[in-house]
Amino acid sequence: MAQDPYKILGVPRTASQDDIKAAFRKLAKKHHPDLNPGNAAAEAKFKAASAANEMLSDPERRAAFDRGEIDAEGKPSERAFYRQYADAQEGARYQHAGADDAAFADIFADLFNRGGRAGNGGPGFGGAGSGAAGPGASARPVRGQHIQARLAVPFGLATSGGATRIILPDSRNLEVTIPAGTDDGQVLRLRGQGEAGWNGGPAGDLLIEVNVEPHAFFRREGDDIHIDLPVTVAEAVLGAKVTVPTLTGPVTLTVPRHSDHGKRLRLRGRGVPAHAGHAEGDLYVTLHLVVGKPDAALEQALVDWAARNPDDPRAHLKVVP
Amino acid sequence: MITIAAVYRSIPGLTEGELLHFIEADWVRPVRRAAEPVFSELDLARIRLILDLRATLEVEDRTVPLVLSLLDQLYATRRHLRRALGEMDDLTRNRLLALLSEQEQEGSTSF
After folding, report:
1. S-S: A180 plus which of A142, A275, A286, B36, CB 3.0-4.6 Å?
2. What is the reported pTM?
3. Looking at the predicted complex, does its ipTM rise above 0.85?
């Protein structure tokens, strides 16, 4: 506890003992960890408030702090909160009064359009054999909780693979290896990086859901990557060597003579790199014809060209010319 | 396993009358109910929680069972959901998480 205990409790330095007690109670009601089982910050706030309260409700320590003789470093009494145990299977011993494990399905029964009880050993819920520990088994090792997290990953990194860092709510900063070919929504599992286990059980895992950020011009379809490539009229008609960006750097692509708008060219092996049972994908380049700014000479040339080429490209649409 | 003497040692301020009252009221269920009851860390943490509820959180004695019942249901839901999540494949789990987080966001704007 490094912060001023008065600030933590939100009371003036002149606060009475009753004010301090009331301020602590107000914070405790909000942040008690056992009433906020999913909230990691609640425990820190509650501990800080407890430590502040411990100091300020002791007149001698409070006076010493006020005189500047001791600083705010006071250890809150270490304790294990109920939620640490209640989340483990042993917590089932305190199933809500009188209810057996199977009765729990009643809470969800209507959600699944299932009337009545699931019954002992019924599918899905309840079977006591699936892990509810009896009193005799209460000291057995229990694996720690998994921690769920999300991580936004740039398109290139997700596709080609590489390392990045993630900062967890508990302020750990971990390096994460993103495998090549990671898909949007894929979950990476870092074993043993979840919450600590109980009774000597192993730690849980860290489950990171990857959100792949869209790329400005690449799109991914399976193991292939697609790009729309603008070409000029001259490049399409006369053919050209053009530069195409790929994930591994620019390459030269030959646009064949007389290429049409929408023509698709393939750069073999320039897609998603080979990964876990997948061969490397390809890069598909779709030509987009860009007219740009025609000049008088091009106009004149096209007038002549149109006269010699009366074919209707819309004939298949049965449009009246 | 923790003896009743060890419980009193770990929780200063807990009186014999209080602990017997907690057990009598079924708020605390020792691992073994016998002449010499035996407790686990879970029971110890629950006793501390009940003391917090009564002293710090100003829950009155007659309201404690209500609060405990709601908490027990909350933790039971967490255990069952966690077990179910553990059985799911990643795709199903992600879909569920995505749906739940969407609803949370909608919920928080409407409050």
Report:
1. A275
2. 0.48
3. no
